[in-house]
Design brief:
Helices cover about 35% and strands about 30% of the residues. It has twelve helices and 14 strands. The protein has a six-stranded mixed beta sheet with strand order 6-7-8-3-9-10, sandwiched between helices. A four-stranded antiparallel beta sheet has the order 2-1-4-5. Strands 12-13-11-14 form a four-stranded antiparallel beta sheet, with helices on one face. It is elongated.
C-alpha cells in the first residue's frame, strides 16, 4: 500500500531521517515507535506530502507522493500531532469546510459528514464550538476530518497525547474499529498503547529503522534468557542441590529469608520444560514449592535496548522548530 524507499531528510547539517526504507501492507494497524526526536513526525509529514524530502521516494497505492501528489493524497487521511482545528467553528461547520476542500459536494458531502461524525461519535456535539469541547472530543474531530474522502490509509500522529485514561481507551477502541476497514499507521511513544492496538511495529532510532515485526516476534527475537523466580520451603543448600542437576540453568541466585529460600535463575532453553523439571524435582524431595513465576523481556525492555544510544540532542531525529522553519523557507 505504501512503499518508503531510501528516505532522507536533512535540515542544514542536521539529519532527521536517514536512508529510511519500509513497506506498509494493506489492511493492518502499524505502530511507529521511537523516542522523542527519533524522526517519527518528520517521516509522517513526508509520507503525507506535507514536507519535502531531501532524497528518497514514497509511493501510496503506486502513486508517487511528490510527482503524483493529488492522486496519492486521495488515498490518505492524516491527523497531525496538533489537530488542524478551527476552534471558533463547530464540528459540523469545520468538517463541511474540510469536506469541500477535499472535493466533496452535495449528497456525497452530506453522507460522509454523517458517516464520519457517527463513526467518531461526535454527532451529539456537532453544533458546539470546538474550543468548548474536551481534548478527547477535539481529537475525535481531528480523526473525523482525516476520514473525510474515504481514504484507504489513516495516519495518526500521537492521537492520545494529553488525554485522560478514559479518553485514551475510547480512542484506542476507535482505532481498532478503523483498522477493520482501513490501513492505519499510528505514531506513539506509549508502548502499552502500541502493544494494545498494533499488529506490526516499526521502531525508529536517530532517524533509522532498527526493527520491524509483530509485537510477539519482537519479544521472541530480543527476549534473551527467561527469568524464573521461586520460593521454596527449604534451606539454601538443599535448594542448590536440587537445582544443580537440572540442565539449562545459566545463572542461579539463592538467599534464605524467614526459613524459606528465595531463588532467581535464568534459563537458556525452554523455560516451561525447566519449570516442570523443577516442580517434579522438588516434589520427589518432598520439598514444598510455595511460588514459581517466569518472565521474559517485554516490549519496554526491547525498546530501550534498541534505542539506548538515542539521547536527546544526538544526531538524527526531529529538528527544533527554528530549524524546521528555516529549512521550509
Amino acid at each position: 500500500m505504501i512503499q518508503v524507499s531510501h528516505l532522507t531528510k536533512r535540515y542544514g547539517e542536521h539529519t532527521a531521517v536517514s536512508d529510511l526504507s519500509f513497506q506498509i501492507e494493506k489492511g493492518q494497524i502499524y505502530g511507529l515507535l521511537g523516542p522523542n526526536g527519533a524522526g517519527k513526525s518528520t517521516t509522517m509529514n513526508i509520507m503525507t506530502g506535507c514536507l519535502a524530502a531531501t532524497s528518497g521516494q514514497v509511493t501510496v497505492g503506486g502513486w508517487d507522493i511528490f510527482e503524483d501528489a493529488a492522486k496519492a493524497k486521495k488515498l490518505l487521511g492524516y491527523l497531525p500531532e496538533r489537530p488542524p482545528l478551527y476552534l471558533d467553528r463547530t464540528p459540523s461547520e469545520y468538517l463541511t469546510f474540510v469536506g469541500r476542500a477535499k472535493g466533496l459536494a452535495g449528497a456525497e458531502l452530506e453522507y460522509q459528514l454523517s458517516y464520519v461524525m457517527e463513526v467518531t461519535r461526535i454527532t451529539d456535539v456537532s453544533h458546539r464550538l470546538i474550543k468548548n469541547l474536551s481534548k478527547g472530543y477535539q481529537q475525535r474531530v481531528g480523526i473525523a476530518q482525516a476520514l473525510l474522502g474515504n481514504p484507504e490509509v489513516i495516519i495518526l500522529d500521537e492521537p492520545t497525547v494529553g488525554l485522560d485514561p478514559k479518553q485514551i481507551i475510547e480512542i484506542r477502541t476507535l482505532i481498532h474499529q478503523l483498522g477493520q476497514e482501513r490501513t492505519v499507521i499510528l505514531s506513539s511513544h506509549i508502548l502499552s498503547e502500541v502493544r494494545a492496538v498494533c499488529q506490526t511495529i516499526l521502531i525508529l532510532s536517530k532517524g533509522r529503522l532498527v526493527a520491524c515485526d509483530t509485537p510477539e516476534n519482537l519479544e521472541r527475537r530480543f527476549a534473551g534468557a527467561a527469568t524464573v523466580e521461586l520460593t521454596a520451603e527449604a534451606g539454601q543448600e538443599e535448594v542448590r542441590r536440587l537445582l544443580a542437576v537440572l540442565p539449562g540453568i545459566v545463572r542461579l541466585d539463592v538467599r534464605e529469608e524467614g526459613g524459606k529460600s528465595l531463588v532467581s535463575l535464568e534459563s537458556a532453553g525452554d523455560e516451561e520444560r525447566l519449570c516442570r523439571e523443577i516442580f517434579f524435582a522438588f516434589s520427589r524431595a518432598d520439598c514444598p514449592l510455595l511460588r514459581m513465576t517466569t518472565a521474559r523481556a517485554g516490549l519496554e525492555e526491547i525498546f530501550l535496548e534498541l534505542t539506548q544510544e538515542d539521547p536527546a540532542g544526538a544526531a538524527g531525529g526531529e529538528p527544533q522548530a527554528g530549524e524546521r522553519e528555516e529549512e521550509e523557507r
